[in-house]
Every structure is written in C-alpha cells, then in structure tokens.
Design brief:
Blueprint lengths: L3 H12 L41 E5 L6 H14 L3 E4 L7 H11 L4 E8 L5 H14 L4 E6 L3 H6 L8 H16 L39 E4 L3 H10 L2 E3 L5 H17 L9 E10 L3 H4 L6 H10 L7 H8 L3 H12 L3 H6 L3 H7 L1 E3 L1 H13 L4 E6 L4 H12 L1
Parallel strand pairs: 1-2, 1-9, 2-3, 3-4, 4-5, 5-6, 6-7, 7-8, 7-9
Helix pairs in contact: 2-3, 2-16, 4-6, 7-8, 10-12, 11-12
C-alpha cells in the first residue's frame, strides 16, 4: 500500500505543467508538495437527485515523464476500466502519431486521438496519410485533433511562419476529407495541389491516396479558443477541443461563436462533439478538496506564462471568465519569476468549476454541469493512487 505522502506527491507529478515539451518536470519551488493555499468552500446549488449524465464518453490524456512506453502500458488498464478515448499530445516532444500507433497495438477498444497535430509542420497530404495509416492500424479507432499551436513552437521549433491559422485549418480539413474519399486532389488556395507551372520541376500531377483507408471518414477535431476559430470548429469540424473549460461560464465566452458556426454547419456532419474536463478525485473531507491545489501550477503556467504579454490566449480566456484582476496578477508574478506566488493567485472558484473534486454526489453534479454545457466527451485526469478504479467509478456515474 502506498504511503499517503508519496501518493499526494505522485498526484502532483501527474498534474504538473510540461517542462521541455511533454515530459513532466518539476515545478514546485519549496518542496514537491508545497503549500498551503487559501481555502474557500463554494456552495453547490444543484440537486444531485435530479442530475442526468448519461451518454457522456470518458477520456484522458497520455501523460509521461521521459518514457511514454511506461505510460502507454497503463492505458490498457484504463481501457478495461471503461475509458472510451485516450488523447496523445505532441507539442515539441515525441511525435504523436508514433505513440498513437504504439497504443493501437497495445489496446483493443479505446479510441486514440491526437491532441494535437499542428497545422504547420506537416503538409495536408502528410496529415491525410497519417490519419489513414493510424485508422488502419487501430482498426477504425483514430481521431485526429488539429490545432494552430502557438508562434513559440511553430516559428521557434519548426521554423515555419505562424500565419493564416483559420484558413489553413479549414483547407486542411477539406483536403483530408476529400483524400479519405480517395478523390484526386486538386486544390487552389493557401495550399495548391499540384504545384502550379513555374514552381518546382513542373512534373507534378494530380494524385489520389494510393491505399484504401479503413474508413472513408475519420473524426477531425479542432483545438480552439478564439471566437473565429471556435466558430470554424462549429461550422466544419467533427469535434472541438477547448482548454480550461468552465461549464458555467462557457456560454458567455463562446455561445455566440458556437451559434454562428452551427448555423453554417456543413451538410452531412453530425452534432459537434465537445471534449473537455479536468482533474477528478472522488472522496470525502478536506483532504480530497485540497487536491485542487495540484491543479494550480498548470493553470498558472497557461494564464501567466504561456505566450507573450499581450498575446496569451489563456490569459485572455481567464479575463473573459471574469477573472481580469487575478489574471493580470498571475501573469505579472509568473513572468517576474515568482511562480509560487502566481499559483496562489489562481482563483479557487476557477479550480472548483473546471475540475471534478469532492464527494461522489458532488462529482456527479459536476459531470452534469459539463454535460449541460454541451460536453460529450469528459476528459479527466484521475488524481488517485488507482486511476483505473477512478475511471470505474466515473463509468458508473456516467452510465
């Protein structure tokens, strides 16, 4: 049996922000379980007896510290416990498709999604090939999450100009869908297929995907936060991957964008899938609620340290949620090197509403809040010694 102190520190390790890509590194400045932070009890105005949460899928993101094979071995246990989807990140660490293929060989039922493949470092046709190949080796379980990433990664790591993210995303999705139907790819826009006369050797010719895909349509999701990109997701994507999603405040931030996109939604697409969630811990007493503190470093990193001052999508989101003063304080402290002080400024309300931490009845209420906000795939990070057991508990609640 694991000791409690080891357990709490291991939870923090799983929830720490990335350091050097996706290998989770140390963030704490005064010990691995440093604190405390101020505590405030928030009232719950939902009657747990009337909560309905059926039909929601469960997913988690693959997290690893240096060796993804070890983390991948745990996915099978989560699959057996009832996990529906596993998301594989990339950033500027190991590439996502390689790990997705490895997971496909280790699992039987769980959906395997990229979260995300950026839209700059691979051509549309390379993304098409990747999608088709992953769907084949997984026997029809692939989901392709796409996103613009950010200028630091795109221009700093890949050496590609960060331009026209909305137009690129739309054209890439169109070309992947056409390619999966094995249409001959001819296109003029941001991307031109084949290359026009005067560029290259002049020997290029229109081609279609050489091999027959497992499916002629693979779910394509978009990671988006800005109003125009969220509108685009609602118009032409199969699913939407928001971040720092607060169900009670999502409508005031994205409601109009989602409505505009839905009004133009492409014919033949089903309703927009939404994948969002947070840390989950089910238990009684203050020790369970105290686990919310382990989410502070991640929120502080994104709101305070991700991107430059004046160009931080996550800072802007916190402001739109109504935390303008706190967001500015977090950013000032974080960019000034005072990470622990920045973490302490993360509003407890934001942590409460964006995660699922508390007694079983309360967690059920939070699941219902996410479902009522349109979430169809609840992405969770179990904060426990036994993640499969937590997934089984959640499976009971959502079923």
């Amino acid at each position: 049996m694991l000791g409690r102190e080891w357990s709490r520190c291991s939870v923090r390790a799983r929830l720490q922000p990335p350091s050097g890509g996706l290998a989770l590194g140390g963030v704490g400045d005064s010990g691995p379980c440093a604190g405390p932070y101020p505590r405030v009890d928030l009232p719950c105005d939902r009657d747990s007896g009337s909560v309905t949460v059926g039909g929601v899928k469960l997913s988690t993101q693959l997290m690893y510290a240096g060796n993804p094979r070890e983390a991948a071995d745990q996915v099978r246990a989560l699959e057996d416990a009832g996990l529906d989807t596993v998301w594989v990140p990339e950033a500027y660490g190991f590439d996502s498709p390689t790990l997705m293929g490895y997971l496909a060989a280790k699992t039987d039922k769980v959906e395997i999604g990229s979260a995300i493949l950026n839209i700059y470092s691979r051509t549309p046709s390379a993304l098409l090939q990747t999608a088709a190949g992953l769907d084949n080796v997984s026997q029809g379980r692939a989901i392709i999450g796409l996103g613009a990433s950010g200028p630091q990664v795109i221009e700093g790591f890949h050496g590609v100009p960060y331009d026209k993210p909305l137009g690129r995303t739309k054209e890439i999705i169109e070309l992947i869908r056409r390619g999966l139907r094995r249409e001959t790819l001819v296109h003029e826009g941001i991307f031109t297929l084949p290359l026009p006369e005067g560029q290259g050797t002049g020997l290029g010719k229109p081609l279609k995907l050489l091999t027959k895909p497992e499916r002629s349509s693979i779910p394509l999701y978009i990671a988006a936060l800005g109003p125009k990109s969220v509108e685009g997701a609602a118009e032409y994507a199969d699913g939407w991957l928001p971040f720092l999603f607060v169900p009670e405040k999502a409508g005031q931030v994205w409601g109009e964008s989602l409505a505009r996109g839905t009004a133009k939604r492409q014919e033949g697409l089903g309703p927009l899938e939404i994948c969002a969630g947070g840390m989950v811990a089910i238990g009684e007493g203050p020790e369970t609620k105290a686990l919310l503190d382990f989410a502070r470093p991640l929120v502080a990193l994104y709101v305070g340290g991700m991107g430059a001052r004046g160009k931080n999508f996550y800072h802007d989101l916190a402001v739109k949620y109504g935390y303008e003063q706190e967001a500015q304080e977090i950013q000032d402290l974080y960019l000034g090197g005072n990470k622990r002080d920045a973490e302490a400024k993360v509003p407890l309300e934001l942590l409460e509403l964006g995660n699922l931490v508390g007694p079983r009845s309360y967690v059920k209420e939070r699941i219902a809040a996410f479902a009522e906000a349109g979430v169809t795939n609840l992405q969770v990070m179990p904060a426990s010694d036994d993640p499969p057991a937590t997934i089984r508990q959640l499976r009971e609640l959502v079923d």
